[in-house]
Amino acid sequence: MTDVAHRAGSEGREAAVFDRIEAFRRRRPRLLDDVVTLAHGAGGKASAALLDAVFLPGFAGDKPATQTDAAVVVLPSGERLAFSTDSFVVKPLRFPGGSAGHLAVHGTINDLAMMGARPLALSAAFVLEEGFQIDSLREIVADMAEAAAAAGVPIVTGDTKVVDHGAADGMYISTSGIGVIPLGRELSAARVSDGDVIIASGTIGDHGTAVMLARGELALEADIVSDTAPLHELMECLLAAAPSTRWLRDATRGGVGTVCNELARDSDLTVVLEEAALPVRPAVAAACELLGIDPLYVANEGKFVAVVAPDESAAALSALNGHPQGEDAVQIGEIRTEPAGIVVLLTKFGGTRIVDMLVGDPLPRIC
């Protein structure tokens, strides 16, 4: 009788755990705010709630909206274009390893690359505050020109607006870009399946930590530089070695933790991450620990997360490690079927915990 009671109690506890997991999985972010907050721009739960409650109903209507880094536009000829747009409000405008100008070019190129597209051209629009120094503007424009030339993606059109003194924090930049998706190339969460391997293309948390320390508001000093870089060549390197690659995403706002949640949501599968495998530089880990911030949620501007077929994972890692931008690429997890729709972290101590989407905005205006 005792064994029967023990088994019944164990089964009851397991059922309760699965009930809690299912309730967690079915939760969707809800917009409860009456005003916009900084958290709505952080790429986490608040951003998802704003998107679901305002932008998708306004622009997509009743049509199902696929949330990817860029839209796919099919031309009458059958050729597919990727089209993306982004805005950059980073503070400060310059930081170790880059500037707002570098981010504006790299960010849009990377959104196109994550769709498997070969970037063709960019546009750039500036909102300038009255009183902004012309020399500072020249420097940012020079950074953009340098970044675009190095990436081989020209800036071909743009616009400039000036607002009253105090109406903007110096400068805001918006860039859009178009790229061609080669015939037969498909990257989407719908292609992800049980047993697939998750790869990070390099160390995580570098950019957000570098910008945070550059503000000088914290009594911390560390040799940390932003990882801002264009990813289209690294993407091509990966796809040449692993042509069955399922899905790509650059882990910018909200970090790896948030993009993995988006993958779990869109694929309805389980993303299992290994804490011991996460590539975090010691200086970044130390800074995040002092500030009580999880590196999983810190933004990157030159790293992607890829899901590849298990039989191509070794070739994928070999190709990435052989590229200067992918020297620190490593497998960080795998895809499972249960419990569906969540991200699970296998901790260094042998336990597990659920990784939710970013809540709040611990590092506002980092891109």
Spell out the key features of this protein:
alpha+beta; globular; Phosphoribosyl-aminoimidazole Synthetase, Chain A, domain 2; 60s Ribosomal Protein L30, Chain: A; 14 strands; 7-stranded mixed sheet; 367 residues; 5-stranded mixed sheet
Care to describe what's here?
- The chain is an alpha+beta fold and 367 residues long.
- The protein has two domains: 111 residues, PurM-like, N-terminal domain (60s Ribosomal Protein L30, Chain: A), CATH 3.30.1330; 166 residues, Alpha-Beta Complex (Phosphoribosyl-aminoimidazole Synthetase, Chain A, domain 2), CATH 3.90.650.
- Helices cover 34% and strands 22% of the residues.
- It has nine helices and 14 strands.
- Strands 9-11-8-12-10-13-14 form a seven-stranded mixed beta sheet. A five-stranded mixed beta sheet has the order 1-2-7-5-6, covered by helices on one side. A two-stranded antiparallel ribbon has the order 3-4.
- Helix 4 links the parallel strand 5 and strand 6.
- Helix 3 runs parallel beside helix 4 and helix 6 runs antiparallel to helix 9.
- The chain is globular and about 55 Å long.
- The N and C termini lie far apart (62 Å).
- About 2% of the residues have low confidence.
